[in-house]
Amino acid sequence: MCGIIGYVGPRAAKDVVVEGLRRMEYRGYDSSGIAVVDEGSLHVRKKAGKISNLDAELALAPLPTTHIGIGHTRWATHGGPTDSNAHPHVSSNGRVALVHNGIIENFASLRAEAEAQGAVFASETDTESAAQLLGLELANGVDLFDAIRSVARRLEGAFTLVAIAADQPDRVVAARRNSPLVVGVGDGEMFLASDVAAFIEFTSSAVELGQDQAVEITRDGYRVTDFDGLPAEVKPYEVTWDLSAAEKQGYDWFMVKEIHEQPQAVADTLLGRHTVDGQLTLDEVRISPETLRRIDKIIIVACGTAFYSGLVAKYAIEHWTRIPCEVEIASEFRYRDPIIDPMTLVVTISQSGETADTLMAIRHAREQGAKIIAICNTNGATIPRESDAVIYTHAGPEIGVASTKGYTTQIVACYLLGLYLAQVRGMKFGDEIAEVMEELASMPAKMQTMLDNQQQVKDLARDLIDAQSVLFLGRHVGYPVALEGALKLKEIAYLHAEGFAAGELKHGPIALVEEGVPVFVVVPPRGRDQLHDKVISNIQEVRARGARTIVLVEEGDDEVLPYSDVTIRHPKCSTLLQPLLAVVPLQIFAAEVATLKGYDVDQPRNLAKSVTVE
Ligand code: AGP
Questions:
Q1: What pLDDT is recorded for position 528?
Q2: Domains 3-246 and 254-451 agree in fold
Q3: Does domain 455-596 have CATH number 3.40.50.200?
């Protein structure tokens, strides 16, 4: 997610803005920029890369010292991390500079409209469409605050917009939908920001803007309305966090913050993928439908958690497309002498897009003639650059080493790929795809339910703090969830944990079960009864040997109760989508155990966020 700051007041705007951007570096970004107003003109400096690049630019070409400005750190979504794609974006008529956080779904049609009115675009971003439209409104004599509301009413998707106008050196305007915006209320100065970290050193008085609200700030105060200009109620509050807490928005750890960001991350990953005429569209799938129709094998290649999301994908892709789908650990794949030809589609999954094992694996696959699709969370990273096509997960930067929102958004991207392949190959009709997309759209709210009911899991973590080993069982898509739950516990709580296919119990692992051993079991929803009943039997088997059973099961399914010591419920969902819900308690459990043990949840020992060596 991008970092935004706006300022008006007695201080030097350029200093306040750049320092505010630095305070938001933790959010992750790949370019930054600043705009100020001086003597009827907009002055902009922006650079790809770290803020140090912007500093160098400012040293070469200093900005005038003024008292109004906006700034931005960009996490690239539409368009790679380049100088021209960096924000702020200035309308070609020079009237307005704008920064944006979020995804504007209908940017293409708005761009065409602006170009038809003479706007000349300088970037490939969705944001510039809003900047150009705003400049056209001002050129038609519309007041700046009215103009930003007018533009906001026309945007679809998620956005926080903040803008300044060349001829208005005393006010900053903004509007938000499905993306955060907070006002910092100072004494004779005002701030706008995506989070309080940007201005907390200047004031702890803040006002959070609500959905579909717009705001105008001047030195003397702020005015909040809805998108139609009617006054809106807002609640001022005092920020009690210090800067470090502000970066985590009040959570103890980035990982915990990112667990809680999953509903929004999944919603953002789904944004704009399903057109009104029921067609699936995927970012940059530059592989022709004809080629995709010839694919006769899919190999998913990834590491760690990304590999486990690939295991979930296998069940969905094979069920929807009837294409054989293998899932390989990248470091094994490239030494296995795999059977690959031009009709093989290799799907690589990587949050960072820089994992060396995965990168080497796809280079090997390319040499063998395979087509490569990357599922990645980092725009412009090496792996998507070296792939034929990419599906970006819009999870925003994932700071915690242990992947959480990366995992769930990878699963969603894999679902989208499976449905897209089924659509292209005629294996699913539009109504069938719409049915799955409709259920996917309901998942963020269901994931939020898991987050709202987390106290039970936290209490369980306290109960099990002295466990020496924890087992995780699942069948079908529950099996990769079991593997992921075990990995989280290993990674951050340094606790021995193993995930097993429940059907494997009798083939060895059940020997590990003795009195009191905690065993998590992911029970499939009732839709697939033969799976469901077999897992019930597995629970009975481990319970009979003294296991403490912690059962993750759908609401209303009471058949497990006689064998469940702790029952964790999730909202109803279809079998294939269950991982999005079942994994959330396992993430919370691992983070809570690690926290109670006093470990660094964000930076666990021996691990790096991106493993760029083999
Ligand atoms: C997961 O919590 C770990 N951080 C690790 O397994 C990670 O998923 C793996 O290294 C792959 O990273 P990538 O998604 O950036 O390629």
A1: 66
A2: no
A3: no
Percent of the chain with pLDDT strictly greater than 90: 81
- Determine if the pTM surpasses 0.90: no
**What's the gap in Å between 401 CA and the centre of ligand 1?**
8
- Catalytic pick from 2, 303, 325, 376? 2
Pairing label, strands 548-554, 518-522: parallel
Tell me, yes or no, if 2 is annotated catalytic.
Answer: yes
Q: What is the three-class DSSP state of 595?
A: helix
Please give the full DSSP string across 567-581, using - where no structure is assigned.
EEEE----GGGTHHH
> In the structure, what pLDDT confidence band is assigned to residue 283 with cuts at 50, 70 and 90?
low
Q: SS3 sequence, 236-276? A: EEECCCCHHHHHCCCCCCHHHHHHHCHHHHHHHHHCCCECC
What is the residue extent of each domain of the chain? 3-246, 254-451, 455-596
The CATH class, in words, for 254-451 is: alpha beta
Q: Which CATH number fits domain 3-246: 3.40.50.1980, 3.40.50.300, 3.60.20.10, 1.10.8.60?
A: 3.60.20.10
For ligand 1, say whether the CB of 258 is within 6 Å of any of its atoms. Answer: no
List the residue whose alpha carbon is closest to atom 10 of ligand 1.
304
Q: Residues 581-593: pLDDT tens digits?
A: 999 999 999 999 9
**Euclidean distance between CA atoms 177 and 157, whole angstroms:** 8
List the 496-501 sheet strands across, edge first. 496-501, 469-474, 518-522, 548-554, 566-570
- Residue among 297, 534, 572, 609 flagged as catalytic: 609
355 in contact with ligand 1, CB cutoff 6 A: yes
